[in-house]
Amino acid sequence: MRDPANTDKRLRIEPQASQAPDKIIEERTRVRRAKRENAAQLEYQSIRNEHPLWFGSILPNSIKSINFPSLKAILENDDEVLPETRLSLREALLADIRFLEPEVHRLVELYIRDLPPTWPRTERRQPLGVCDISSDRMKLVIASRLNLAVYVFRCGSPKVTSRPDERHDVHIGMEGLFHFCAGFEARPDARGHAIVLRILDLLGLSPGATTPHDLDRLDKRFVCRTFNHLPIQGPRPGQAMTWREVVQMASLTSAPLLGPDNPIPRIELLPPQELPREPILLYKFSEENRGAGYVSLAGMKAHLFIDGIWEGVEGQHYHYAQPAIRPGATTIQEIWM
After folding, report:
1. Buried (b) or exposed (e) across 169-180, using 16+ Cβ within 10 A?
2. Other Cβ atoms within 10 Å of 53 Cβ, number
3. Judging by beta carbons within 10 Å of its beta carbon (0-12, 13-18, 19+), is residue 285 exposed, middle or buried?
4. Helix (H, G, I), strand (E, B), or coil: what is residue 274?
5. Which distant-in-sequence residues (6+ apart) come within 8 Å of 79 by Cβ?
6. CB-based contacts of 260: which residues, under 8 Å, 6+ apart?
7. Per residue, what are the HEC states of 203-217?
8. Strands 292-296 and 186-188
9. What distance in Å separates the CA atoms of residue 69 and residue 93, rounded to the nearest whole number?
10. pTM confidence score
11. In 10 A of CB 210, how many CB atoms?
12. Count of Cβ atoms closer than 10 Å to residue 302 Cβ
């Protein structure tokens, strides 16, 4: 005679036991997929960091790269991440990047169309550069008409924050083409534009020819003597700043519009004898801000400031690499931001 208790127990356990293999397979598939996506993002960041700054600045966010067609096909395979898998991921990414040029041109035209008529224009159409990618020479030819330092844009998507100085992101030149935010609108920022014009005037440079990278290479320091609307945190008036710091601080305020009540701050170029004496440090950004290069401590903070990181924390937002000081270094080298 059957024991009813044992029969009932078996009836309760059998469905769970039959589902266990499916759950194990599902979990294994999920874990493998996550590993492949992580490997793909690391390869993508590696590609971005291997090539000039302008190249990396126009590529989409690494999260968006997961939707690239060739890459997506590889991610669907339920395989372990092996050395040959990484090679396949890299080749797929490079194949997909080659098809970005039409989209970049389309976005450039949209940005140019929305520029105020009073802003300077340039019709230069020479390529910004050519990248040697893998064994194939990929020519990503980008019309450089948007690559001017005076072209400052503001993200129109409000952030979930109570701080007025964090409600918008500011992008310069081509750096916002693949801004990672839903419904990004390229809104020209009159305040940021006016500040860059002032900086170029101080340096004697042409608004219609000076690129953001030109100003990065000059690595001059400026000081703001007056400010009507200060951000809550960040550099203060009288503090030596890079040109990007000045633009970001002045643009990320609660009063972006120009007018009699909201003039731009009085900006001055610091002469060499007044520059703060700082060691030139070799730094490496953390996972959130990948890249490496020689830069002063103030310069490193300025680049973190661009990403909305007001108070960078060593070990979290940046790391010092060895050797810590490079003798004789005086300028910021080309770095990834």
Report:
1. bbbbbbbbbbbe
2. 19
3. buried
4. helix
5. 32, 36, 85
6. none
7. HCCCCCCCCHHHHHH
8. unpaired
9. 9
10. 0.60
11. 22
12. 24
Alpha-carbon distance 321 to 282, whole Å? 6
Tokens of 220: 């001059």
Counting every residue written for the chain, the total comes to 337
Q: Tokens 């979290």 appear where? A: 316
The beta strand positions in the chain, using DSSP E, are 131-133, 136-138, 152-155, 170-172, 186-188, 222-224, 267-269, 280-285, 292-296, 318-325
291: which 2 tokens?
A: 């890249």
Q: Name the strands in the sheet holding 186-188, side by side, starting at the edge strand that comes first in the sequence.
A: 170-172, 152-155, 186-188
Rg, C-alpha atoms of the chain: 25
CB 226 within 8 A of CB 266: yes
Contact, 98 vs 212, CB < 8 A? no
User: What is the maximum alpha-carbon separation in the chain?
Assistant: 102
Report the C-alpha gap between 309 and 166 in whole angstroms: 10
Q: What is the CA 67 to chain-centroid distance, rounded?
A: 19
Domain limits, the chain: 4-97, 101-276, 277-337
Secondary structure class of 68 (helix, strand, coil): coil
CB atoms near residue 337 (< 10 Å): 19
| Residue 146 amino acid letter | L
pLDDT digit string (tens) for the chain, length 337 residues: 555 555 555 555 555 555 666 677 677 777 777 777 777 777 777 776 665 555 666 666 555 666 677 777 777 766 676 667 777 777 777 777 777 777 777 778 888 888 999 999 875 554 444 444 443 444 444 556 788 899 998 876 655 443 444 445 778 888 777 665 555 567 888 888 999 999 999 999 999 888 887 888 887 888 877 655 455 444 555 677 888 888 877 665 555 555 555 667 788 888 876 665 544 444 444 333 333 344 555 666 666 665 666 666 665 665 554 333 333 333 333 333 2
